[in-house]
Amino acid sequence: MLGAYFISPLANAESIDTSKINYLGPIAPQNALKPFETNRKNAILNNLKQSLAAEQASVSLFGNTVKWQSLNKLNALTEPGLQALKFTLGTTRFTPATLKLEGVKEASFYLNGELVSKSGDAYKLPLTTGQHQVIIITESVEDWGKVALDLTSDLEGAKISVSKEAPNTLSAKQLFDSKTVSNLSISPNAKLLIWQTRSYNDKNSNKALKETYIKSVKDNEIVFSLPANASNFAWSDDNTHLVYKSSKVLYKLNLKTLTTSALSEDLSGISNVDFYDNNTLIFTWVKRPEKSTSLTKYYQGLEDRWSYARNKTSVYLYDLNSGLMRQVSPAEFSVSLQDFDNERGTLLLSRSISDYAAPPHMLTELLEYNLKDNSQTTIGKYRTFNSAQYSSDGLYITAGPEFGEKAGKTVADSQLSNNYDTQLYSVSYDGKIITPLSKTFNPSIGQFSVLKNDDVILNVGEEDRRQLYVFDESKKRFNKVKTNLDVIERFSVSNEKSPTLVFAGTGAQLPQQVQLKTKLSNAKSKTLFNSKKAFYANTQLPSLEEFNFTNDQGTEIKGRVYLPSNLDKEKKYPALVYYYGGTSPVNRAFTGRYPFNLWAENGYVVYVLQPTGATGFGQDFSAKHVNAWGEYTANDIIKGTNAFLNKYSFVDKTKVGNLGASYGGFMTMLLATKTDMFSASISHAGISNITSYWGQGWWGYLYSGEASKNSFPWNNAKLYSEHSPVFNADKVKTPLLLIHGDADTNVPVGESHTMYTALKLLGQDVELVEYKGADHQIFARDKRFHWWNTMLAYFDKHLKDQPQWWHDLYPNK
């Protein structure tokens, strides 16, 4: 055994031995191409690293199976080809470390899958809270007896653990990179299923890895592979063909022979592809104007601030037999295709009309276009409208409570409704008879699909969950579909008399699952995919508790608390309070832009609450969002945080942070002017001046049409000024981090600049971080990880008295 091999337990490092290191070798035959000697070194080693990172007992290479073993069991002084070492480093706080590798001429060092370059004669490792996988690939080490690894903590008092076991703490990469099902579509006869997945890895960085298959519903087995980037799937009603789009080309797949034929050369800009009948396709086609070379842009209305405002969308029919196509929507304006009825020969179309006379300062015209005589009939013009579909004797329409002369409104006449609280209506063909169907149904209606018997399956926002319901048309009632998931992300339903349902979703502590239900009323489902087993099997996850309280108006405010998996109630923990506060609740998805589970595993108790104004809790609750701009919301957050701190005695009341984004960022700024109960605050893409957001945000005037309904700077200056955080900036005492994308069109970056200017001039503790090229949300993988790190590092600095991570990300100049 190689007793000479050692890792030196220097200052602040845990004493370890070679039994804590995994060894694999030789990886390749001695005469195999040596990657260190080729210009393809990085590509070869990246591929190899992916295989080595998998938590498997062995690796198959060149037909040979090579098993991992403990390094202390290696007897040879040298081995041919490549070798690899793998181990796990763990920290309970951000810890900069240095690792020296001696006795190896050529090595590639990977920390959590990312290549680390040498700094002098050592590797600098910024270890964040949690566990980190180290992989070292070496070539032809002359004498393993002379190899040494010296691991040193660069932070006094910090400890680094070393283990041969795989990491079991939740990581950002798990949450972002793990494979998820991104698209589902079941065939009309429920025999086949489109199955599209998305994942990420270090090799491809920001580029999503997609896989697209046709599966057999019966046994969940792949029967055909489609192009990875396939989209716009359409099944023929007779179940003989599938049409899809790939790289601007439309293809037709014969489902009996599994042969593919191209239908077009270039149809870039088409979407919403469907079979009008078994021989005809219908789709929408967006035509964009040529780029202007003019020195000026002459605005044609408020909508002209949108980059897509001058695009024109038309509806086309495509004859599969001849390849001919024709535009079938009115040529004079741009439309959206809501639905079609091939038996009646009609299209259901909508279009937006500029009309600034009343909030939300736009009209939607719903019209029916008759393909037989090219006539069109206007069904109605509406201030609130979401979508429409045909039923056998009329239409189903989703819209706000004030649709159809306030047909769905349940709040008092003196109270304005929140039209983001979407309702379901039955409407006659001519639009004259409107019947509200969901007035006594509190959830807010989202995507829906009309079944053969005129029942409707709906994805609804029910408090902080997204659930499936079936509206029973004959009994005029809503029946819940049992899924055992908190948030249904997508669903697809077959066209049978007794339809089959497939759906994907997550829970607050449950990674994605895909389930199949052969009967909507059946409580049992068949699980087709379980992300927890595939990607989180050995991962520790926080525990979850429900926490509700009653606000000053006597209304119960719902919330939940994430507790670290290693919680010790004898210790004191910092806490984070998260909210949105706008018109939508913070749902219970397992992950997303704000990773509550990850924050908890980084040592924070996380409280998420649903303050007054959100949809999904009933119209009385959501209506209080209108003309309030944080009035009720701030009180709920302050009272809820106090109640939370009183119950959870192991939370340090002097170490509580708060954060929110968009309207939630506005709430963070507003709270900073109202209370000093928080020790540090983060506002992402927040609004500091309601007037400038109303006038400059792409959708500012539209959103304000609900949030500030009938109120304008000239008739309600008090609302626009007193509720704007910058007008009360002198009251701010809490350290505040402002984060914004510099390409944000929704809430322009100037909103953060305004608050930053005010607080700097007032001498307050304020930081501003902009993400270059980022819009309202941070999507790109590299930016997402940096953004998550920025938020945690800021809170570590202020709530854990650990500024090292923040200074590592943003060194003092």
Automatic annotation (TrEMBL):
Coiled coil: none
One Pfam short name: Peptidase_S9
Signal peptide bounds: none
Top-rank taxon: Bacteria
Span of domain Peptidase S9 prolyl oligopeptidase catalytic: 596-801
SUPFAM superfamilies assigned: alpha/beta-Hydrolases (SSF53474), DPP6 N-terminal domain-like (SSF82171)
GO molecular function, one term: serine-type endopeptidase activity
Keywords, sorted A to Z: Hydrolase
UniProt protein name: Hydrolase
Protein's organism: Pseudoalteromonas piratica
KW Metal-binding (keyword) present: no
A Gene Ontology biological process term: proteolysis
